[in-house]
Design goal:
The chain is α+β, with helices and mostly antiparallel strands. The chain contains seven helices and eleven strands.
């Protein structure tokens, strides 16, 4: 592949020929988990005055297909940069004890586009973003704030030593083709689960994902899985197979609840 055809963020061709990734390394799955489960990330924009890389911290949510979504003010430097040049990246990193570099992280690259106010896209993105970041509702309606969506071009995953991979957009995003019924049912299904089946969501988090107890809620659903949140904590529950309809979604959620209950002490 010629250099001109390289995706943004691609690794240099410097790995030794003997380098081999571990057999259990699944880059798309790990990348999708980081993309869906990480609440905040480092936004890299191009300074509109000099072209220097400008890094800032932003809250992050995802659209139905997994595209990162941010909420920014026109008063901020990164918004002014995006207005001049939408090209940007977001670094999403897992945290934990020990060396920070031992934990996986994902850099997603592309171009941001502002979502038009009072559009159908804004209503959907606003709902999903505020479900992930409820405190943002205090200022999300201010006139100088707007949602931006990243048109993903590529991604770079570093999962730890010998676990790096360059990924295309289709490797990290969720395919919505043929899933119109699920897309239409998503808002109602999220509300139904949170209002009537909070016990099941708690079991998903604690029994299937190994999370600590808490007020776990579902913040979003898509063909690949469910996004869970409990205060400042987030988690991603992957479905065992791709879901495209409301009926299949109900069956999958019931089956996962039954699996979780089977792991509970008698």
């Amino acid at each position: 592949m010629a250099n001109s055809e390289k995706l943004p963020g691609a690794m240099p061709d410097r790995l030794p020929e003997t380098a081999r990734a571990p057999a259990d390394f699944d880059p798309p799955m790990l990348a999708k988990t980081l993309l869906r489960a990480t609440r905040a990330g480092t936004l890299g924009t191009l300074d509109r005055n000099t072209g220097h890389p400008f890094a800032s911290l932003v809250n992050v949510a995802t659209d139905l297909d997994g595209a990162p979504v941010i909420l920014t003010s026109r008063l901020s430097t990164h918004t002014a940069n995006l207005e001049a040049d939408g090209r940007a990246s977001i670094l999403l990193a897992a945290t934990g004890k020990g060396d920070p570099l031992a934990h996986p992280r994902l850099t997603v690259l592309g171009a941001f586009a502002r979502i038009e106010k009072e559009s159908a896209d804004e209503a959907r993105v606003r709902r999903r973003f505020l479900a992930r970041h409820p405190k943002s509702e205090l200022y999300a309606g201010f006139g100088d704030f707007a949602f931006w969506r990243l048109g993903v071009a590529s991604a770079h995953l570093n999962g730890g030593f010998a676990r790096a991979a360059d990924l295309k957009a289709q490797d990290v995003l969720t395919d919505l083709a043929g899933a119109a019924e699920l897309v239409a049912a998503e808002e109602g299904a999220v509300a139904h689960m949170n209002e009537d089946h909070a016990d099941a969501t708690l079991l998903y988090a604690t029994k299937l994902l190994g999370e600590e107890e808490g007020p776990w809620r579902i913040s979003g659903l898509d063909p690949d899985g469910a996004d869970l949140t409990a205060g400042d904590r987030t988690a991603r529950l992957a479905f065992k197979q791709r879901i495209t309809s409301g009926g299949a979604l109900r069956q999958a959620l019931v089956a996962l609840a039954q699996e979780a209950r089977s792991r509970s002490p008698a």
